[in-house]
Amino acid sequence: MAKQLIQLRHNLVLWRNLIQAGFLFWCLYLGFQFSRFIAHFVSQGEGPFVARPPGVEAFLPIGALVSLKNWILNGIIDPVHPAALVLLLTFLAMALLTRKSFCSWICPIGTFSELLWRSGEHLTRRRFKPWRWLDILLRSAKYLLLFFFLKLILFGMPAQALKSFLSTPYWAISDVKMLHFFTSPSTLSAVIVLILVVLSFFIRQFWCRYLCPYGAMLGFFSFLSPCRITRDVNGCTACGNCDRACPASIAVSRKQQVCSMECTGCLSCVQSCPEHQVLGMGLISSRRFMPRWLFPLLVLLIFTLGVASGMFNGYWHSSLSYRDYTQLIPLLNRL
Ligand code: SF4
Ligand code: SF4
Predict the structure, then answer these.
(1) Is residue 2 part of a domain?
(2) Is residue 163 situated within a structural domain?
(3) In a mutational test of the pocket of ligand 2, which residue from 229, 234, 237 has the highest number of ligand atoms less than 8 Å from its CB?
(4) Could you report the per-residue pLDDT of 12-24, keeping only the tens digit for each?
(5) Which of 230, 239, 269, 270, when mutated, tests ligand 2's pocket best, judged by the most ligand atoms within 8 Å of its CB?
(6) Are residues 144 and 239 in the same domain?
(7) For residue 227, what is the enclosing H or E element?
(8) What is the pLDDT of residues 272-286, one digit of tens each?
(9) Measuring from atom 6 of ligand 1, which residue has the nearest CA?
(10) Which end of the chain is more exposed for a tag (fewer CB within 10 A), N or C?
(11) Are residues 153 and 280 in the same domain?
(12) Is 290 exposed, middle or buried (0-12, 13-18, 19+ CB in 10 A)?
């Protein structure tokens, strides 16, 4: 019994799945609260009023990039959706310090995607993999999408255009529009989402691996991270368990340190290694491993510090008033 408890305590994948589930349910709760907030205004004040949860702004990554550039060029933190910028900066800091840990520990879409391929693998008893050439071709799609958004925002919007965009009614209710996209999708959006769900069922992390421009951006930042999966080449028996466990298809067993932009710090490879102290998360240019509990703790700590600093410095709640929402929400379908 004691041995099983110790094994449970050291099961990194189990701990990661629990943290992922916590964030997924938290996001669903935020979405539910936000839909009640909107329902109050749709019913013209007849339904109960609930406070708007600022965390929904995590789903405005493109606007957050505009906001970031506006902050850099104009020195102003957008007061309409300040939490969007706080969360973007938090996720970038996570990537800089703890690789793309946002993707494998926090992102609800990543969690949903993982749930889908695990179910697919369980039901079909097979692991479908695109041909290598197709895999490389598809992987470039997320970088092309990232390039498209960066070109549009970073190179295509001068300082004045940023200010103008952030003061439009469209930006003011972009969070409402985002929820509307999920709750009342158009036929085309529903078909696209359905295709992605089916592909994610058969192919491991289809969305994250091939299409997510946010993950691609975090990948570039993660390149500078001091944390690296490290292998002790002397103790390694070349069993290949780590290669099979890696959702990013990295050949871990052939590297001394993993510095790929695809590594999400999920620690599945570490969990799968049967040898003691052969594979672990380490620091760049060091052969020593961190204690197993340290990496998850760092991920949660950076997230908590990022959000708390936004809250305590007054960059969390929107400047929009009750009256603003009374006027804006009826315009939803016209903006
Ligand atoms: S190398 Fe290890 S930590 Fe990185 S993505 Fe693959 S399994 Fe996860
Ligand atoms: S799982 Fe461990 S022992 Fe097996 S190949 Fe990977 S690092 Fe080597």
Answers:
(1) no
(2) yes
(3) 237
(4) 888 999 999 999 9
(5) 239
(6) no
(7) strand 227-231
(8) 999 988 999 999 877
(9) 246
(10) N
(11) no
(12) middle
